[in-house]
Design goal:
The chain is about 15% helix and about 15% strand. It has about 45 residues and is α+β, with helices and mostly antiparallel strands. The chain has one domain (about 1-40). Strands 1-2-3 form a three-stranded antiparallel β-sheet. This is Insertion element protein.
């Protein structure tokens, strides 16, 4: 995964490479979780 954006607010994450922190919503996310648990959803036409 090349992008390191917060799964909650889509802000660029700080620190790393093992644990990232979001300066906007103060969330800590492990890099392994970004690759496996937070998959970007694509809008689906209704």
């Amino acid at each position: 995964m090349t992008s390191t954006q917060c799964p909650r607010c889509q802000t660029e994450l700080d620190e790393g490479p093992i644990m990232y922190r979001c300066s906007t919503c103060c969330r800590a996310v492990y890099a392994a979780d970004l690759e496996n648990d937070y998959v970007t959803r694509h809008p689906v036409a209704a």
